[in-house]
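Re-run with default settings, no changes from the original entry. Doing this only to confirm the output is reproducible before filing.
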Amino acid sequence: MSYISLYRKYRPHKFKEVVGQEVVVKILKNSIINNKIGHAYIFSGPRGTGKTSIAKIFARAVNCLDNQDGDICEKCANCTNDIDDEIDIIEIDAASNNGVDEIREIRNNVKMMPSNLKYRIYIIDEVHMLSTSAFNALLKTLEEPPSHAIFILATTEINKIPATVISRCQKFDFKKISESDIINRLKYILSEENKTLEDNIIKLIAKLSDGGLRDAINLLDQILSLNKDVVEEKDVYDLIGEIDLNNVFDLLKYITSGNIKEVIKIINNYYDEGKNFSKICEKLEYLIKDILIYNNTDNYFDKEYENKLFEFSKIDSTLFIKMSQDLFDLNYDLKRSNNQKIVSEIYFLKMTLNFNTGDKTEEKELIKETTEIVNKTVNNSNENEKIEQEILLENKKIIVNNCLYEANKQLKIDFTKQFEKIKEYETDKKYNMLSNLLSKSIPEVVGNNNVLFTFKNNFEVVLFEKNTEKIEKFIELIYNKKYTVVSVSNEEWNEIRTKYINDIKNGVKYEYMELKKMPRKNKKNTELENSIKDIFGEEYIKED
């Protein structure tokens, strides 16, 4: 039997199993008890707080033949059927099906009576991703829905949903799950799995999940996969690419003391360890906020934390405010640049120089100069990235072409026979993500050197493309042969296959094509590197 992730294994299947959404559950149960079922609902709130799970439970509960106090009985035919196989409960991911055609298809089918159940339920997840025309089409359906249809719209961004749609739905706001509720749920799962973790690790997982129970359970799953007798806090932070509070204090201490050498050393280490610099920026901003609160209030934090903040209490608050703005700008530029190391170094240099004492005339000029170079570097990176994306898109078309050129039925049969081996790596820390991803795919076209995979959702295609090199190495491990791989959605594949069939009928011959070469990247930005040397010396420049 293949491994089932903890999140799926412990997903609630009835209202009484739901954690932390008591108000929402109570109202929905009462509506079932009193037979006051609405035709449309909006479930809005942060990710991982139970929106989709409760939507599925509600879909089963309104169709239960013998509901128990508004909850499912788990005994009748409607309750015992697998919800994923129920044709009257339709789940749609608006992130990958966001066009007007999909919604029009719903409009065309919604008047049909349910095949098995009392109500036909449409659950539209990430509904805010729908296009404007799709929302307009949905609005017409919500205005005059048939009595047997119920719509449940789930979203993390209610602000993106038109007011005209919201006004036609019952709106439920899902709150973040409290740390105590998350801790209790994690302890329950550990007990069921016959596993143990120290209380400080469980509390840390709950804190880092930021109110998302799904995130907490997924992180717990990863930690248990480490198979360590004693899990330390560092292991948890390493898994998510973050740094702990002590590291944040150390970094801020070196910045505020003007210690350029240590700051650059720390930044280089974090980069080598694959730390998330956006998260580092956020943690520093939170710390700055706490320092400013501490400087202007009494007894707001506990004594131990206040003792740590006291070290920074004598520093001019305007410097922290400026640093906060620099962190905000850095976070923004990190999303625009593909050279995060250089951009991070320059920004942290600016911040450190701002805290230096004495005559700053020369340093201010250097800060101004490096700021201009950062902007130039980001813009150049964006232009290079655009060129790279065009070549990547062209190469994808070439690989698809080569797959079709090489397509061989027997090769596909042989490849498929061994494809089940990927499941052997589902619990392997190094390959579990790749194994889980590929398990959702179908090797549709196989040749001597190329394989085309299809996925149901476009999200998996994007994830596949981001990890293509790792996937090729993983497949080489299984087959002891190197393949070039490509993936497309089922929708794309239908278009590709139709064109291929027509081409063959019309006598079009496919020829093998060579991949386009990516432009060579400059190993270093000379202008930027020279500025760094000017600021703190050549000995601190580290070769990548």
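Residues 135 and 162 are 8 Å apart (CA to CA). The longest helix spans residues 361-406.
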